[in-house]
Amino acid sequence: MNTIKLERVQYIPKQLSPGILYVTERYSVAAHLCACGCGNKVVTPLGPVEWSLSENGDLPSLWPSIGNWQLPCRSHYIISHGQINWAGAWADAQILAGRRAEEQQRQAYYAEKSQLGTFAKIWDWILRAIRKLFGG
Q1: What pTM did the predictor assign?
Q2: Conformational region of residue 19, where left means phi above 0, alpha means psi within -120 to 50, and beta covers everything else
Q3: pLDDT tens string 3-16
Q4: Cα(111)–Cα(55) distance, integer angstroms
């Protein structure tokens, strides 16, 4: 399989067809059959610290690369404008380093989001106090 097309669905089907990237916005998930042809289902969560999806018509791009390290095939590729671009195999140390980096990115993202949430609560409290003080 060298190409893949986008299909938006409410739910990911139980049986996937080759060459289709199924995306459910409701559950922020994409799924497809492994590009190597082994028949395994590959599920990628979509979100600010997961994979990002862009599209040009029905031609999807998914970033970052898909490393199927837990599958027997250990395939590694990028989906870009509907094309499967094969990437090099990773050694176990590279996989571990990549997973650590992803976890650090997640932690940093949610820590920042939490701080912004705290700031918003404090700001809301200040605004309410000012309104109460000035009879607003």
Answers
A1: 0.77
A2: left
A3: 999 999 999 999 99
A4: 30
